[in-house]
Design goal:
Largest sheet: none
Number of strands: 0
Number of helices: 5
Mean pLDDT: 79
Shape: flat
Strand content: under 5%
Structural class: mainly alpha
Order of helices and strands: HHHHH
Distance between the termini: 20 Å
């Protein structure tokens, strides 16, 4: 854990410094470069996650595990993906339903109750992701 922090913090600080320099010099090109760098970092993170889950990144841990198929790390990563995906989806849903609800309320103030029900349903998506994450963590 400490070793990964010692490696990760300087890398993140370096990327942040390069990003600020790139965006100050040429904002439009810097933004395109930033998107490419973020895409590459996402791809590298996904490859690293797949390597850890497959057991390639830590052969000593894979040998110690033997033939057991239960991997608590995979359940935790799955729980994180469930929460992240549901909150991103809920954010989009609340953005669209909230703006439509505000438009409806501005035209007809008595439609407040019905429109807030739809916004609440959109927020419920995040709760479903949290429930799935709790179930996954409980099985780990």
């Amino acid at each position: 854990m400490i070793v990964s922090l010692l490696v990760g913090v300087p890398v993140i600080a370096g990327i942040a410094a390069l990003t600020t320099v790139g965006l100050r010099r040429a904002p439009r090109r810097g933004l395109h470069r930033l998107l490419y760098v973020n895409g590459l970092l996402l791809l590298a993170a996904l490859c690293l996650t797949a390597a850890i889950l497959a057991g390639w990144a830590d052969p000593a841990h894979a040998a110690a595990a033997g033939s057991s198929s239960k991997n608590p790390g995979a359940a935790l990563i799955g729980a994180g993906i469930a929460v992240a995906g549901s909150t991103i989806g809920a954010g989009f849903a609340v953005a669209y339903t909230g703006s439509a609800a505000l438009a409806a309320i501005s035209e007809k103030p008595e439609a407040f109750g019905r429109s807030m029900v739809f916004v609440g349903l959109a927020e419920g998506i995040a709760i479903y992701g949290l429930v799935v994450a709790i179930i996954l963590i409980g099985k780990a």
